[in-house]
Amino acid sequence: MARDLEQLYREALVWDAHAGVFPSPQIDLNLLDEWQQQGASYVSINVGFDVMDWQETLATLAAYRRWVLDHPDRFVLVSNTGDIDRARAAGKFALSFDIEGMNALNQDINMVSLYHALGVRQMLFAYNLNNTAAGGCHDRDTGLSAFGREVVQEMNRVGMIVDCSHAAYRTTMDIMQTSCKPVVFSHSNPAAIWDHQRNINDEQIRACAATGGVIGLNGMGIFLGDNDIGVDTMARHVRYISDLVGSEHSGIGFDYSPDIDVDIGVILRSRPDYWPAGQQYDTRDIKHGGPAQLPALIDTLADMGFADGDIRGFLGENFHRVAVAAWNG
Ligand SMILES: [Zn+2]
Asked: Where are the alpha helices (DSSP H) in the chain?
């Protein structure tokens, strides 16, 4: 990597909008060190998804929250973007939590502000299948329900990032129309580059950009291509978003997990409803791109003509802009 890019990367705010660590109270969060070692400043880590019941999500949130608060020398559980600035200045790693799907709300709007108070700063509406709030990307597309609309407004009010990843097309368009704050796809790739139900079409990308939002590059090989995590492939996805709506709408949501003692393949095969056949989930040894590839990726983007400001935006400033609007207001 050229020396000026090395310096840019060292000094940049690096925001990973979604970690794909399997949520469980048993997970040893020392694994978060890997993000900081690779130069990341902040990650949003999921404490639950619709496959779990809401009590399990709350138990995972309780365990993660206590662990982070017990390690104040290394980690900061952030409330707003000022906390991220302070964490960086102190050499600490910043994080907050997200939840993938609204089963975690137990159909109770009061749960939104409770989760917010406990450190959740981003919520997704569905996890692949429909729930009472929203339609999932591997299900019949029913759109956003009246309850889902209420949740969007409550998330806007309390200060959470509204996240459309894993939801179905119509639902995402309904969400983006309802939200008065920028909306993100924290970890979704353009379907024009790799056609997968988890990826999103041009209309969704344009609508997201129109809210002032950001689309995070997902590092999973089956969403990038044929289990392909090469940086050239990643760069094609980033460039597509940038060409379509502008580089200020592109970011990182690697969906990455360090190696943990959980066999993801066994989990995926155990629930063919959430991870249906024909969507590559049965791929052996699904590859995961992550923050370790960022230096090579930004090198490639620079070769493609991305200016330093575009690269800084992609690395973190774009998602930071969304968080300023969503969290701090
Ligand atoms: Zn996900």
From this structure: 3-11, 33-37, 54-69, 81-89, 110-117, 146-158, 169-178, 202-210, 221-224, 231-245, 264-270, 294-303, 308-312, 318-323
- How far is ligand 1, taken at its centre, from the CA of residue 50, in Å? 10
Rounded Cα distance, 126 and 141, in Å: 11
Structure token digits, residue 26: 């048993």
> Can you spell out the DSSP letters for 135-181?
-BTTS------HHHHHHHHHHHHHT-EEE-TTB-HHHHHHHHHH-SS
What number of other Cβ atoms are within 10 A of residue 320's Cβ?
20
Over residues 152-170, the pLDDT tens digits come to 999 999 999 999 999 999 9
Tell me how far the alpha carbon of residue 128 lies from the centroid of ligand 1, in angstroms. Answer: 9
For residue range 76-126, list pLDDT tens digits in order: 999 999 999 999 999 999 999 999 999 999 999 999 999 999 999 999 999
Structure tokens at 36: 């900081």
Residue (of 227, 216, 198, 199) closest to 287 by Cα position: 227
Q: 21 CA distance to ligand 1 centroid (A)?
A: 10
CA of 90 to the centre of ligand 1 (A): 30
Question: What are the C-alpha distances in Å from 37 to residues 29, 31, 86, 280, 291?
Answer: 14, 11, 18, 31, 9
CA dist 45 and 119 (Å) reads 11
Sign of CA dihedral 174, 176, 177, 178: positive
What is the Å distance from ligand 1's center to 305 Cα? 30
